[in-house]
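User: I'm curious whether this sequence folds into something compact or stays loose and floppy. Could you predict its structure so I can see for myself?
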Amino acid sequence: MKNKKKIMIAVIIVVFSTVLAHFYVGYRYDITLSEYFVYNQIISNQERALLTEQPLQFGVYDYPPLSYTNKYNNLNVGIIVDYLSQVAIEFGHDIVLKVADVTDIENTFATTAIDALAVDKRALQDTELPHTNVLFKLKGKILVRESQSFYTLDALSGQSLVAIKRHHVGDLIDEQRFAALNISIVEVDNMYQCFALLRNGTAVGYLGDDMEALHYLNVTNKGSFYRFLDDNFYVKEIVFAVNPARQYLVDILNKAILSLKKKNLITQTQYKWLGEARGVDPRQMALIYKLALAAVVVIGIFSVWNYLITKKVNEKTRQLRESKEELRLIIDTMHSGIIVLDNNGLVLDCNNLIADILGLKRAQLLLKDSRVLTAMAPFIDANNHNRLIKVGNAYYYSTAFSIAQNKKMIIVEDYTEKYLKERRARQQSKMIAIGQLSAGLAHEIRNPLGLIKSYSYLLDKSGEQNLKAHAMQVIDESVLRINTLIDNLLRYSKLTNEIHKQIDLTALIDMIVSLEKKHLEQNDIVLSVDVGQQKPQIINANEDLLKLIFINLINNSIDSFQNVDRAEKRITITVRLKNGNLLLTFKDNGCGIDAEALENVFNPFYSTKEKGSGLGLYIINTEVGNADGTIYVKSELDVGTEFEVTLPVKEGEKNDD
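Assistant: Here's the prediction. I'll summarize afterward.
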């Protein structure tokens, strides 16, 4: 297939070049391309030997400016005479000129020693005389005054034209056309009489051979006062008729004629006699030829370029087709569902897995409006993106990406097995943590139990009333201590639900602050909350975790003011949403924490408070870590403490329901 295309391109170039060369040679030299290859050679030695066998004699006749006798020196002159002089130079052999009769050419050759004669090709139609290729052409033109408004033959209707008798224009023109226009023709003997009739108004124009008129205008310097109409009314092809006895001269003369034309000598001769070159300007033809050759080269280059580009395009198309098939295979074998939507929600593409998840066939999804597909609703809901969603008994994680200016891709991952494993792993971790806590809890419970046992014995053995009252107080406090430890342990074991929902953050904070209001007033503490400029702030988050953080850290700040004398007791809470994270800052000017205690504040059962359980900050730190958040603390003794909490959340719009 590739070789056929190359051959086709080569054939096209060759054919085009051949046609172009044929056109150029025919237009430039009046011969065919095959004749050009035959005659575009120098005269051989054998041909030169034939020329020397006897003198060459060419016939001339009175037909100015082609040939005529100069009345001042009695020499033969004219355009054809000059051509023959140039032919003699090409031959390297003299040519003898003799006056000949052109009215009966066959008789002239039969009765004289003339070898060749320049004649109108049509004069040879009824003869079998050999002749050369065209030497030049005489064109039948109409010459009018420049001042006249005649530009076409139709404009000369009803007018008279003058012609020379020996031109025989009546035999050459379309007489019916001239008769239809009522154009009359007056014949005279020579060009001087023609122009006399033009000057006195007897005729409005000259009809005849263009070269004779041009020669007269050139001699008399009147060329600027006259012009030719564009049409040619006849054409005479001037050739050399050759004596049959020396027929070999045809090929030799054809080589000489082609050589003269190639050397531009014919054009130069016409310029000498006529004041301008008739026919084709070789320089223009050379330019045309170069342009045509350039066109061939450009076409060739374009063809090659087109072939190479086509080859590359076909190769790239094949690669793209293979890549598309590979990509299709990869997409269909992925463990995640994929949906590609446009801005209008139209399903542009999807893989087989998402079709299985939705319980539909892939063909039922393609080019369908996703908004009317009920099964697809949970996955295209923007509120469900980048978070775990439950559909039936399965859990999925939906993620959305923009892949083009007007397209987005939704990736749905089946998270069920992973979710259950993570849940079991967290439960196991919790049980391990509870086991660790139990060891500390046993120690913490053993102390108040020891007190209860001791004071119970004293109550049983002692009868003193004061001692009994003290014993009952210690027993109550010990029981309360044990109850507090158990409550914290239960709270830790139950806290880690992962329910995320839309929360009005401002409303949640206001509710917690209202719960703490009495506690704050009792301790003369001023609490200020900065939630930013946008209110209300709606987020998707774990509400229980936020309540735990706010209540514990606010209460810790309140407790930090015990035994602290401050002119103004302040707790400042700052809330910000930034880059998908909730940033919380709790700052107070309470007692502060020393450096040694600061390192242990997140350890279980470590507390600087007299009646603290040591589980509050440990639980907060654990739950914040489980939520992929962070908590940091910085404090200075007798100056104050600041907690910074970061939680990943998602901003959303509050549902009306």
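Summary: The domain at 336-414 is CATH 3.30.450.20 (Beta-Lactamase). DSSP finds 21 helices and 24 strands in the chain.
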